[in-house]
Amino acid sequence: MPVSNHARVPPAPPALEVRDIAKRYAGKTAVRGVSLRIEAGEIVGLLGPNGAGKTTTINMILGLLAPDAGQVMIAGLDLARQRAAALALVNFQASYAPLPGNLTVRQNLLFFGRLYALPGVARRVDELLESFKLTALARTRCGLLSSGEQARVALAKTLLNRPRLLLLDEPTSSLDPATADDLRQMIRDLAVRNGCAVLWTSHNMLEVEQVCDRVLLLAQGRVLLQGDPRRLAAEHGDASLEALFIRIAREPLASGEST
């Protein structure tokens, strides 16, 4: 049998792999044994009621908190041991963290690009201004933009460093329905075109069904359910993802559900 001279190329590591992370505050467990994996180009929703552990999980992925146990891997890099290299592949945006309103669109992008220590930052800013149809607004202060325009600038900011992993916390919560729909489509296109992985948190279940390839539902610091958001409710006897969310939020441990 002939032997191939071509070396087998190992598969690329996932954009994000979280292995059994845990975190305690003052004797109380906020996150217990959470694991998740996101491949390149995949959009995964992280769902759960307030206090479920979503923010703590995100903060551990961003390196803002160190897990008490477990491991965070970003594109094959161990966040604990290769922090700078791993975080260079990540970006984050939340609706509650608007860009400085007294800076123009270009100034904001240049500021963050320099904060990220990007080479050729001016050229990268010009590319993003054109890609997001923001060139005409480049000299406009962000505080004078519409909510939709601000959302486009914020998304452009997250792409400055060409991230492998993008974390979006309630990215459409302050937008009108039409603008929110436009932003969702932009993010879907980004995942498909650039292979960027996205971890998306939202309380809008219809949005989650439209955008996410998979969802994980957290309650009391652990993953209770995961799967396709368009099928998950029916698989567990609920009429809608929202109904399932409400049931799990109200009775997370009595429900008998598990991963």
UniProtKB/TrEMBL annotation:
CDD domains: ABC_DR_subfamily_A (cd03230). PANTHER family: ABC TRANSPORTER ATP-BINDING PROTEIN, ABC TRANSPORTER ATP-BINDING PROTEIN NATA. Pfam families: ABC_tran. Belongs to the ABC transporter superfamily. The keyword Transport applies. It comes from mine drainage metagenome. Keywords: ATP-binding, Nucleotide-binding, Transport. The keyword DNA-binding does not apply. Residues 16-245 form the ABC transporter domain. This is Nodulation ABC transporter NodI. One of its GO terms (molecular function) is ATP binding.
